[in-house]
Design goal:
The complex is a heterotetramer, with 2 copies of chain A (about 280 residues), 1 copy of chain B (about 300 residues) and 1 copy of chain C (about 250 residues).
Chain A (H helix, E strand, L loop, with lengths): L5 E9 L5 E10 L4 E5 L6 H8 L7 E6 L2 E2 L5 H7 E4 L12 H11 L4 H14 L15 H14 L4 E5 L7 H16 L3 E5 L3 H7 L2 E6 L2 E6 L1 H6 L1 H6 L6 H11 L13 H11 L7
Parallel strand pairs in A: 3-8, 3-9, 6-7, 7-8
Antiparallel strand pairs in A: 1-2, 1-4, 4-5, 9-10
Helix pairs in contact in A: 3-4, 3-5, 4-5
Chain B lengths: L1 H21 L20 H7 L7 H18 L2 H18 L4 H8 L3 H12 L1 E3 L6 E4 L4 E4 L1 H25 L4 H10 L4 H30 L6 H32 L17 H20 L5
Antiparallel strand pairs in B: 1-3, 2-3
Chain C lengths: L1 H24 L3 H4 L8 H28 L3 H17 L15 H8 L1 H19 L7 H25 L4 H27 L6 H38 L7 H8 L1
Helix pairs in contact in C: 1-4, 1-5, 1-6, 1-7, 1-10, 3-6, 3-7, 3-10, 4-6, 5-6, 5-7, 5-8, 6-7, 7-8, 8-9
Classes of the chains: A alpha/beta (about 280), B mainly alpha (about 300), C mainly alpha (about 250).
Chain lengths: ~280, ~300, ~250, ~280
């Protein structure tokens, strides 16, 4: 059987005020998965991410990375291999030039300076912001800062990349840039976890979805399974993706054949209609 | 003064937006600076736009410091005058800073200079003394030609010193100045704090600007009393927000493997030999000038 | 829950104080920073030397805090940035002129005066670099008046008022306003030392500088006192928890 | 002819670096309109809002509120009657309790204290957060803070309410709360301008849409007109709303009759399908 790249067993975490933020999380994540993490604010997603990266230490339970159980000594492995792109770029960028910022992670890995410089150049090229190298972050726009924070993680060469609500407040052009980068990273076999409130995005992008609710994972499966489960949607206050609604409606009205195609974009629906539109009318 | 720094940030960003789509950079920033907000707080902005930004920062810092010290030590009006002119040349001609912007930065300390120089130039006495005096009820205010000359020389010296310092600050971003301090073996802790503080200043200015707009949109600066209350509220809220941010930053640093050593990647900029030679020649010239002119400032 | 809040509260207060102190140092900004070139070389060095023991004490205290609590680094830096920003803000004024808060009072009250010296000198450097307020050769003199003398006096008055049970907000007002005035007096003294009067020496010269700067500095001190009280009232409402963060910093100061 | 409640004539505003943020904006806004303001970050939307509210003063051009030209003396009228809900609640809230925060505006209008208290209570009740009255706002959750900032404006009894990207970072439950509040305010005849990157939301909610691009309004019309104009969409980097795509596709494939119904939600499409689904097949 394939070994999970990250394995969480029975994770508990509570903050000082006594409310459990993680209340028994067990989940396996496999190399190359594209996972949407869904759930209302305060349901434990961010706490989960910080545990996954080793910044927070669970009260109970354990985390394994590629089969090795993580303890105090090897927690560096987590920080190195699991990168987080935080929601608010302004709370992540700490250096006063783009170069120093992107080099911060590699410098902490104690790499030789030549390699740090090479990695910074690569990451900036990857994100198409090599020109910003000497700029201070305070003169960048929101979308540019987002790119810098993604370059931060790319320069770490993390195997697993976590994005905490990356789409919030991005304008269309930058949202498109983000989806392109996600596609590129996916093609390279990176494992990605993305928390999002955008069910349409989750439905379109993810191969797997997890729903958090009050510190527990209440559902874990393909986006289709999850968004078809009314009970889960209600419990987590989720809307259904528009494309799912539309498709099911067309099937219900027998306007398309039920081939379980489940298109996730208007474009895919169009292709479907071209190929399989029913020509039979109904009474 | 306050908001202008924050405003400059948005100006610069607004400028970037267009570039974002059209990918022509940099040139755009050399727009003539409107006098509307051309205050000292824009210094950071000018530093990034300077055409001599690529000069080796260690050279710029040391050259500017030596020039500054010579202005004070040599204490000679001719030296001051030469420094004023050559620093203006470096900053405006070489650096490409609009003259109006340069003068507005030079004028920032003008209140202090006028008041301070008046206090030095005049004197009190119960008897009429000096070449020029004025009776003001309980005694005399007086001054003399010597005093007036001292005042003029002092002003020259002050402007010489200021122009030497702002030649550096108008062409060298703070992160590079901090890098020079690090090379000068300033304690690591201080360097770390300076790096972070520099970054946070702009974060908090953004926060302040947003809060001020929010308060202003609800008539929060209507009169003096309201303004005081608003100012205090904004200040205390800004503190709360900054504390939250401090935590968020630490988390983000840890997530990238921070373990107590804050070292930033810096790029070495080559020291041009020609700069060294010209710099040294300039300094020697200043000293010779002092030796050859008898004046004491 | 309550306990944790208290600790948080303390920390917050400490942070705020630190911050305040820092900005306290900076703020006399426009009118009272001694400008580059104003002091003869001897005075530059002498005032710098006088600051050194205070700076070393502050440095040690910050280092100790950081050793016990590495997380404090971002808090301290935020405090420094806060002081800078506060001191660069135009404050409400009746005349409409451009005045700045020193923040000395707030910083010292919240944070205690020692560690503030370090944040203060950093803020002064940034004021010189980013705002062209003050200067590098006059850094020693400005540090002494704004990052050391003012904060210590403010802190002393604040503690004294607490001991003799003056109304707390009045105490804060007096501490901040007098601290501000003291900074201004020290600056006047520094200038007078460098430029003694022909007729009456340093004594007359001090009077001259005090008189010349009084019209801007006296109202400023009063506004500073009022604003500090307003900020403290605002913080007290929050103090229940966010302020606890300042506990880290306080640990280093006490 | 109906008089506009807000009239902008030839507004210019530029920041210090010389780039115009508003480059000749002329537009009339009428009582009770529901307007979506669309455009990428940096296209001038926020500058426009701050001018509309009197916080920024345009370099050229003028603003009239209910027929009165605004000058330095009556700029209070703008601040009083045009309220802004800023994007980031954390940076909008400035008082240290919810009550003081919501009362901040009314206090500054110099209303009698009893009326201030009454307005605060009304606004908090309206937003369903009366229980939070004495809490410090910074301990509230993101969605709760958003409600406080909306209460801020409701307490001002502004005629025109501007929302700057209100949906960004709201979780589904709070997004639903927001849409309910928008509905309620609309029913009361308030004029609303909402900037958003969510084209589906704009298509669903707005009666009128304006597209900003580099400081100019490049399009102004019904959302349908705008989203059908490929040229505008391309110029402003906008996606088309999914429901529009789907509907046009169904018409194109002749699966529904072209009645120009343009449903904006899956529910509306369902109703449409029930009523008008074509029974005729095609070859």
């Amino acid at each position: 059987m394939r070994e999970p790249i990250l394995k969480f067993s029975n994770l508990y975490y509570r903050y000082g005020n006594g409310n459990p933020a993680l209340d028994g999380i067990s989940v396996d994540i496999y190399q190359g998965e594209k996972i949407a993490v869904i759930g209302s604010n305060g349901s434990g997603k961010s706490t989960f991410f910080l545990n996954a990266n080793g910044v927070l230490k669970a009260d109970h339970g354990e985390i394994s990375y590629q089969g090795t159980i993580i303890n105090k000594k090897n927690v560096r492995e987590l920080r190195k291999n699991i990168g987080i792109v935080f929601q608010d770029a302004d709370n992540q960028i700490i250096a006063s030039t783009v170069m120093a910022e992107v080099g911060f992670g590699p410098m902490n890995l104690k790499l030789p300076k030549a390699e740090v410089i090479q990695r910074v150049d690569e990451a900036l090229t990857y994100m198409n912001i090599l020109d910003f190298k000497d700029r201070p972050p305070h003169y960048l726009s929101g979308g540019e800062k987002k790119r810098v924070t993604i370059a931060d993680v790319i320069a770490m060469k993390s195997e697993v990349i976590i994005f905490d609500e990356p789409t919030a407040a991005l304008d269309p052009l930058n949202a498109q840039m983000l989806e392109e980068v996600l596609g590129k990273l996916g093609a390279e076999g990176k494992t990605m976890l993305i928390s999002t409130h955008d069910v349409d995005f989750a439905y379109r992008w993810a191969e797997r979805a997890m729903v958090f609710n009050q510190g527990k994972i209440i559902a874990d499966g393909t986006p289709l399974e999850i968004f078809q489960n009314r009970e889960i949607l209600e419990q987590a206050n989720l809307k259904r993706p528009v494309m799912l609604d539309v498709y099911e409606m067309l099937i219900e009205k027998e306007m398309v054949e039920n081939t379980n195609a489940y298109p996730t974009t208007p474009q895919a629906l169009r292709d479907l209609l071209v190929n399989t539109a029913l020509s039979a009318g109904k009474a | 003064m306050e908001n202008s720094l924050a405003k400059w940030i948005s100006f610069f960003r607004a400028g970037n937006k267009g570039e974002d789509q059209k990918t022509h950079r940099q040139e755009k920033h050399h727009h003539r600076i409107g006098h509307k907000h051309g205050e000292g707080s824009a210094i950071d902005f000018y530093a990034y736009a300077s055409k001599i930004r690529h000069w080796n920062p260690t050279f710029k810092v040391i050259f500017s410091l030596i020039t500054l010290l010579l202005v004070i030590l040599l204490n000679n009006p001719l030296v001051s005058l030469v420094v004023i002119i050559s620093m203006a040349y470096l900053t405006v001609i070489k650096g490409g800073l609009p003259l109006g912007a340069y003068i507005s930065v030079l004028m920032i300390p003008i209140t202090f200079i006028i008041l301070g120089t008046i206090a030095i130039g005049i004197d009190f006495s119960s008897l009429p003394m000096g070449q020029f005096n004025l009776f003001i009820g309980f005694g005399y205010v007086f001054t003399s030609a010597d005093k007036l000359q001292e005042m003029a020389f002092l002003m020259l010296k002050v402007f010489g010193a200021i122009s030497a310092m702002i030649m550096m600050t108008l062409s060298t971003p703070s992160s590079e100045i901090i890098g020079v301090l690090r090379k000068a073996h300033v304690p690591k802790l201080i360097i770390e704090l300076m790096n972070l503080i520099y970054r946070y200043i702009f974060i908090l200015l953004d926060v302040f600007n947003n809060m001020r707009n929010s308060a202003d949109s609800r008539q929060g600066y209507g009169d003096f009393k309201t303004s005081c209350y608003t100012f205090g509220s904004v200040a205390s809220n800004m503190l709360v927000v900054s504390l939250k941010k401090a935590n968020a930053y630490y988390t983000a640093m840890e997530a990238r493997g921070y373990e107590g050593d804050l070292i930033f990647l810096e790029e070495e900029k080559k020291m041009a030999v020609s700069h060294l030679i010209i710099g040294a020649a300039f300094i020697i010239f200043l000293i010779l000038l002092r030796i050859m002119t008898p004046w004491e400032g | 829950m309550n306990k944790s809040m208290n600790i948080r509260e303390k920390r917050f207060v400490a942070i705020a104080a630190a911050i305040a102190l820092v900005f306290g140092l900076t703020p006399v900004a426009n009118a009272m920073h001694i400008m580059e070139g104003y002091l003869p070389a001897g005075f530059c060095i002498a005032w710098g030397a006088i600051c050194i023991p205070f700076l070393i004490a502050g440095y040690m205290s910050i280092r100790k805090t950081l050793k016990e609590n590495p997380k404090t680094i971002t808090l301290l830096a935020m405090a420094g940035a806060y002081v800078f920003v506060l001191s660069s803000l135009k404050i409400p004024s009746v005349t409409g002129s451009c005045s700045h808060m020193t923040g000395t009072g707030l910083g010292a009250i919240l944070f205690g005066p020692t560690a503030v010296s370090i944040l203060g000198i950093i803020v002064l450097i940034f004021q010189a670099i980013l705002l062209a307020h003050g200067g590098l050769t006059t850094l020693g003199a400005n540090t002494f008046s704004m990052a050391i003398a003012g904060p210590f006096v403010t802190y002393g008055i604040f503690v004294l008022c607490k001991k003799i049970k003056v109304n707390k907000h009045l105490g804060v007002f007096l501490a901040a306003a007098i601290g501000d005035l003291f900074t201004y007096c020290v600056t006047a003294f520094q200038l007078a030392m460098a430029y003694p009067s022909e007729s009456g020496g340093v004594g007359v010269s001090v009077v001259k500088f005090l008189l010349v700067f009084a019209p801007t500095q006296l109202p400023l001190a009063i506004i500073e006192g009022i604003l500090t009280v307003v900020i403290i009232i605002g913080l007290e409402t929050y103090a229940s928890s966010e302020l606890a963060e300042l506990g880290y910093l306080a640990g280093g100061v006490k």
